[in-house]
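Intended use. Records like the one below are meant for learning the mapping from a protein sequence to its folded structure. Do not use them to infer anything beyond what is encoded.
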Amino acid sequence: MGVIRRQGIKNTIIGYLGILIAFVSFFVVQPYCLTKEEIGLTRVLYSFSIIVAMFVPLGIGNATIKYFPLFKDEEKKNHGFFGFMNIFPLIGYVVSAALLFTFKDFILNQYRSESPLLLEYFDFVFPLIFFNAFIAILSVYCNANYKSTIPSFLNDVGVRLAMIGIVGIYFLKIISLDQFIAAYIGIFGLQLVLLLVYIFYFDKPSFKVDWPSFREKKMFELIRYGLLLWFASVASIGIKNLDVIMLPKYLTLDLVGIYAIAAFIPTVIEAPINALDRIAAPKISFAWNVNDKSQIQEIYHKSSLYLFLFGGFFLINILTNIHTVLQFLPDGFQRGEPVVIIFSIGALINMATGVNGSILNTSAKFRYGAFYLILLAILLIGFQVVFIPVFGMIGAALATTSAQIIYNLLVFLTVYKFFKLQPFNIKNLYVLIIIICTCILSYLLPHFENKFFDIGVRTAVVSLIYFLAVYRMNIVSEFHKHLPWKNEE
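Structure written out for the chain above:
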């Protein structure tokens, strides 16, 4: 757990620093410097490109996590795994771009009625797809080498700071909207270049593939594994981005902008699991290779308990303060409050199940994980088509959250059925009780006229109650060992 703990802590710090910067971007800069329609435009372009970009690598990212340990050899430059890995997104991009261009008119017709501005800037998705596809692959390569901190920093901090910069320049009318969108795409191009520079700094990889070694080390099994999880990866990303893609078909871009701001807030809850998963997945893969189920169980349990604990803390503070926080934004953004609540509950449930997805997807039963994600992507499209026309933004949030809950339940049951691994014990129940009781108490607290004072007092009270309860019930025994008064006893 040493490597996981160190990099997990670093990634968590970077993740929350990124969230702090994103908070400034989403709540201070963008709502006042961009129109709701412009916010919606950037989010749709990004979400659309991310979904297509997941098709591009042809599943090599999943295969890298599982099979890279077999090829890792610094003296032989990992047998040219870096060059082999990059063949797939190159082929995938050519095919994906050709298909996208072929069906471009059909796609644009879906948005012509409600979101005409999107039609003007749709062509920007082509370079954005390329950048995001290779960023994803290079980040996986870094993670597989236990070098996840710099990619996390670039993604969570660098990109967001750059976004604030170009929004400010656009607000000052130094650049036009066309130039603003071009600069927005350029941010991701710069991220890709910096990732390449970092990889050549720590690894000095070779583009020359050692084909005999690949044939010897089950190359075709690697490719089959990657292709099987290919659609699963797309489905996984689709669950998080499909709502933003579907909304402009039924709602105007200004409502999509409101939805995007509201959907960002619950990411505070899930930041630790995203940080932990980047380094835990390779570690779990190594453990499966040597059949060390005890280590996997330890990672599973601790990830569930600690993530549930942190997630509960942030959920309570979000539910306590969301109504007041949204009052700081321009008129109209307050309509996103139900979206925040729905996504926050879904995020906590995801945290409570720990790294179950990584356990299943790196195991011999990975096909089940792939099947579940593909099934859920299909269900999610159905949910969105039914819920959005009826409930609007709330319908999109309900559809996405429902799909995530179903997926986590299926993965949990499958991991338990085949491996008899499950992350819960009595302490998880204690955390659930603390969360529920603290939430109830938060609604009994009075509201104050001054917004800053209201948020400060309510946050302090619920945080104190939460941590005192966690301390008294000895939820985190490791923490108690380091307390000064405990060492004196």
